[in-house]
Design goal:
A 4-stranded antiparallel beta sheet has the order 2-3-1-4. The chain contains 3 helices and 4 strands; from the N terminus they run βαββααβ. The protein is globular, with a radius of gyration of 14 Å. Helix content is 39%, strand content 32%. The model has no long low-confidence stretch (mean pLDDT 96). The termini are close together. By secondary structure, it is α+β, with helices and mostly antiparallel strands.
Length: 101
């Protein structure tokens, strides 16, 4: 099992609309690619939130090849869509983790 983690810090100006969009539209669209089996949205605690909250969105993939398929076929369009919608009101970094238990 692999976890594709997207950590995003969003400004307070877009927070409410952004989190609703993530829950109702974006994460479902990512899972609907067939590359991931589930998604979990987490809010980081005990971090500085003056400029806005930080979230980790974790997508579960059954294999590295499914993750690679997402990165190659779908990720560029999703990244562009997010930038077009939210501009500079957020920052994000991505990581891949392997479940070892």
């Amino acid at each position: 099992m692999f976890i594709y983690n997207v950590t995003s810090k969003v400004t307070w100006a877009i927070h409410d609309e952004w989190i609703a969009w993530m829950k109702e539209i974006h994460t479902k669209a990512v899972v609907d690619t067939g590359c991931f089996t589930s998604v979990t949205i987490l809010r980081l605690l005990e971090v500085e939130e003056e400029e806005g909250p930080t979230y980790a969105i974790q997508y579960s993939a059954e294999s590295k090849s499914l993750y690679n398929q997402y990165i190659e076929k779908f990720a560029p369009a999703f990244k562009q869509e997010i930038f077009n919608k939210w501009g500079d009101n957020f920052i994000a970094f991505r990581s891949l983790m392997q479940v070892v238990n």
